[in-house]
TrEMBL record:
Source organism, top-level taxon: Bacteria
Residues in VWFA domain copies: 115-287
Pfam families documented for this protein: VWA
Protein name: VWA domain-containing protein
Transmembrane segments: 6-29, 41-63, 83-105, 312-331, 337-357, 369-391
Ranges of biased composition (kind: Basic and acidic residues): 417-428
PROSITE patterns given in the database record: VWFA
Ranges of Gly residues composition bias in the record: 400-410
UniProt lineage: Bacteria, Bacillati, Bacillota, Bacilli, Bacillales
Keywords: Membrane, Transmembrane, Transmembrane helix
Region ranges (Disordered): 400-434
């Protein structure tokens, strides 16, 4: 016989767990978005979210065992603590990695930029952070690697941007060497940093020299911080679907690092904290080879922004995340009837959360609010799974446990023996468990 159950305490704690998981997730995104590969980042995001929600649900059921019954708390709750980490953190980490890989998979090189604009900081502070002008040497190495179809422009900047070379097609080795030689004429660093002005100048040049069906990207190298009206400066980049990849040299300049990271994230680019100038060449290589990056919990940009396939894929993958989160709760409770109910309920919760993310993130000025709402809805609807999907009676079938099927579990046998007033050895008992 199936019946609908509900644990009000579990619902409250599940929502609390969803909120805590959201806060931890936002800290992760703030610290690692743009620096950590997005597959690993999404694995950690969903893994920790599942762990926190699972922990809260287990605590609620231990305190008030409305779904599993009192005998579960007495005999089997301790098994839930052993299963908690592998069933939630590890399972959803693996799912997050796999689903992000699928979501970010790109076939071919259609989305890779054909035009690159390099913005190299030449303010006074670069005398200390880059005394040997290794940023210039890295730019020369990149120019020599780009194929004949690419165009490149180079600017240096302090409080005033200066064009070293306009957008020029690298049609042969001679052109590459000519541009590389021009970089050797750059003077000594001087003045203050104005990143916003450099980005504006670069966009004006790209719009002037733009060729239809050619994507462009900016690579910005800096060691400092400047006040930037990001809403004004970055709006043209979003409209033109132009990524800004940023490279921070001096990691002790916290405000500068945060600025560069936010510029990259808001334009769909990547941020590289090289700490030492020797790492700039490696950062250039990663930018050139990897191209576009975005993940399941953030806005899509560039050519994927209005891609209906990507939108449907995001919803489908978040649905599967919800189903696996529900399944993980069933594993923690060691109850296949609850596992079925929570998996179905989790799929419904994931579907709703996926739709909220897909419709809310695109063009949102506060994506963290969209993520927070979706996370809370996912946790709330998940907690109602046993109301949405009736739960089977473990005493009516072959047992409730996940680990022992077929002939029945020890839990099912004990509970049935107790209901008949007999011990597990078949002998009468004077007192039943209540």
């Amino acid at each position: 016989m199936k019946q609908r159950k509900w644990n009000g305490l579990l619902t409250v704690w599940s929502v609390i767990g969803g909120f805590i998981g959201f806060i931890i997730g936002e800290i992760m995104l703030a610290e690692w978005e743009g620096t950590m590969h997005e597959t690993l980042l999404m694995g950690l995001y969903f893994g920790q979210f599942a762990l926190v929600v699972g922990l809260c649900c287990l605590l609620a059921e231990v305190i008030s065992p409305q779904l599993n019954g009192r005998s579960w708390r007495l005999r089997y709750a301790r098994d839930g603590w052993k299963l908690l980490v592998p069933a939630t953190l590890l399972l959803l980490f693996a799912a997050g990695v796999l689903f992000q890989f699928i979501y970010g998979l790109q076939l071919g090189n259609r989305d890779k930029p054909q035009d690159y604009v390099l913005l190299i900081d030449m303010s006074e502070s670069m005398k200390t952070t880059d005394p040997e002008k290794q940023s210039i040497q890295a730019a020369q190495a990149l120019i020599r690697k780009l194929d004949d179809r690419k165009r490149v422009a180079i600017y240096t900047f302090n409080e005033q941007p200066s064009q070293i070379y306009p957008l020029t097609q690298l049609k042969d080795a001679g052109t590459r060497e000519q541009i590389a030689a021009k970089l050797n004429t750059i003077g000594a660093p001087v003045g203050r940093t104005d990143i916003g002005r450099a980005l504006t100048e670069a966009m004006e040049h790209m719009e002037k020299e733009r060729v239809p069906n050619r994507r462009a990207a900016v690579i910005l190298i800096s060691d400092g911080f400047s006040e930037v009206d990001k809403a004004k400066v970055l709006t043209p980049y979003r409209l033109q679907q132009t990524q800004v990849h940023t490279i921070g040299i001096d990691s002790t300049e916290k405000e500068g690092i945060q600025l560069l990271q936010s510029i990259a994230v808001e334009t769909g680019g990547t941020f590289h904290d090289v700490k030492r100038v020797e790492g700039i060449t490696g950062a250039f290589d990663q930018i050139y080879q990897n191209g576009k990056r975005w993940h399941l919990m953030n806005e899509r940009v560039d050519t994927a922004a209005s891609n209906e396939y990507r939108g449907l894929l995001r919803v489908a993958l978040i649905l599967l995340i919800g189903a696996m989160l529900g399944l993980s709760l069933g594993v923690v409770f060691d109850n296949r009837y609850l596992a079925k109910s929570f998996a179905i309920g989790g799929a419904v919760a994931g579907l709703i959360a996926g739709i909220l993310l897909e419709t809310g993130l695109q063009g949102s000025e506060a994506p963290f609010l969209v993520r927070g709402f979706a996370d809370m809805v996912l946790a709330f609807v998940l907690s109602l799974s046993t109301l949405l999907v009736a739960v089977g009676d473990p005493n009516a079938g072959s047992g409730a446990g996940l680990r022992r099927g077929g002939g029945g579990t020890r839990r099912g046998q004990l509970e049935q023996g107790e209901s008949r007033g007999r011990s597990k050895d078949g002998l009468p008992v004077r007192k039943q468990f209540r």
